[in-house]
């Protein structure tokens, strides 16, 4: 195994699939010679050529249309949207076309497109770069939405996404790109989409989360353990479809739960998880299911983001409310 950052694991996954399948194409703004804003595609054009790893104009709508056309012709496009805040420019292609392709064709055609994009706060980006817009994608039937929290999962989930015959939105939290290293197999492997991971086992409280908030939740769980509380942490990994079975099994064991997301509270993934818990396991609950989220405001300028973003202290505070109920 090799010690990799998340960005290195993503590059390794792309290289793996470019080698395995000549129909895999990687493209987007500055992904060729420059290797992308974060160097996720560094060296790939040199290795696989300009026909398979190439730059596009600065036009997200064009990237979306190109992806659909290539998929129609038998390719497996892996386009990059340079920052996920730019997804509005390509919403018709994604939600209006890709997501409906299998249904519209009567299950005779599919759209094996994996859209990669960085997102997330805590790195002082300009406006529209850090927004957590995953809720927009998860609300659209026909799309899978994947958010890894570690280098190991980034590689295995991305390979699975590229091999999937339906469109996948693969979101990469910018704060996690180079924040730590982890042992990652150099050979190919896959992690199934739609399957959550129990990052930490516990008996008193379940925390359900994803992305960068996994690490904040684990930190909170460690601090709560010092105070005598056993906390289980579930990493969703795929936020659409959600692994309801793993969540309910945990809640039936702990009888208490909170849900943590970086995005604003309104209409988010956390609300969906809370609904699933209350619909399926309300008789197991000994306290209300609470949420830890960002405020319902526009993402602030970078000077204020540390105050705006949820952190492990917020998680601990909410956890104690549920534990003490």
Would you give an account of this structure?
With 325 residues, the chain is an alpha/beta fold. It is 36% helix and 20% strand. The chain is globular. The chain starts with a strand and ends with a helix. The mean pLDDT is 97.
Strand content: 15-25%
Number of helices: 12
First-last Cα distance: 45 Å
Largest beta-sheet characterization:
5 strands, mixed
Can you give the helix content as a percent range? 25-40%
Model regions low in confidence, pLDDT < 50 over at least 5 residues: none
Total beta-strand segments? 14
Order of neighbouring strands in the sheet with most strands: 9-11-10-13-14
* SSE run: EHEHEHEHHEHEHEEEEHEEHEHEHH
Overall structural class, as computed from helix and strand content, comes to alpha/beta
Q: What is the radius of gyration computed over CA atoms, rounded to a whole number of angstroms?
A: 20 Å
Overall 3D form: globular
What average pLDDT do the residues reach? 97
What is the topology?
Layout: E1 2-4, H1 6-20, E2 24-28, H2 44-48, E3 53-55, H3 60-72, E4 76-80, H4 91-97, H5 101-104, E5 114-119, H6 134-138, E6 144-146, H7 151-163, E7 168-173, E8 182-184, E9 197-200, E10 205-209, H8 213-226, E11 231-235, E12 238-240, H9 244-254, E13 257-264, H10 269-281, E14 290-294, H11 305-308, H12 312-323
Parallel strand pairs: 2-3, 2-4, 5-7, 6-7, 10-11, 10-13, 13-14
Antiparallel strand pairs: 1-8, 6-12, 9-11
């Amino acid at each position: 195994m090799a010690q990799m950052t998340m960005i290195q694991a993503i590059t390794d996954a792309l290289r793996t699939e470019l080698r395995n399948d000549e129909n895999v194409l990687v493209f987007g703004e500055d992904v060729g010679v420059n290797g992308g804003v974060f160097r996720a595609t560094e060296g790939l054009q040199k290795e696989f050529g300009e026909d398979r790893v190439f730059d596009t104009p600065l036009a997200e709508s064009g990237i979306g249309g190109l992806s659909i056309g290539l998929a129609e012709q038998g390719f497996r496009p892996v386009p990059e949207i340079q920052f996920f805040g730019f997804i509005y420019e390509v919403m018709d292609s994604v939600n209006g076309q890709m997501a409906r392709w299998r249904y519209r064709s009567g299950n005779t055609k599919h759209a094996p497109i994996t859209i990669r994009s960085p997102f997330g706060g805590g790195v002082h980006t300009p406006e529209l770069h850090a927004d957590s817009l995953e809720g927009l994608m998860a609300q659209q039937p026909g799309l899978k939405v994947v958010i890894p929290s570690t280098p190991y999962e980034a590689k295995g989930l991305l390979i699975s996404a590229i091999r999937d015959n339906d469109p996948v939105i693969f979101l990469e939290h910018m704060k996690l790109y180079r924040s730590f290293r982890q042992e990652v197999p150099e050979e190919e492997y896959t992690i199934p989409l739609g399957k959550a991971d129990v990052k930490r086992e516990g008996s008193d409280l379940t925390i359900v989360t994803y992305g960068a908030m996994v690490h904040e939740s684990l930190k909170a769980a460690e601090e709560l353990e010092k105070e005598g509380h056993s906390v289980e942490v579930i990493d969703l990994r795929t936020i659409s479809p959600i692994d309801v079975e793993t969540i309910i099994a945990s809640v039936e064991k702990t009888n208490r739960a909170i849900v943590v997301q970086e995005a604003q509270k309104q209409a988010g993934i956390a609300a969906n998880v809370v609904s699933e818990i209350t619909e399926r396991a309300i008789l197991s609950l000994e306290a209300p299911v609470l949420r830890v989220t960002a405020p319902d405001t526009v993402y602030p300028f970078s000077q204020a983001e540390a105050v705006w973003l949820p952190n492990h202290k917020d998680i601990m505070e909410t956890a104690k409310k549920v534990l003490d109920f």
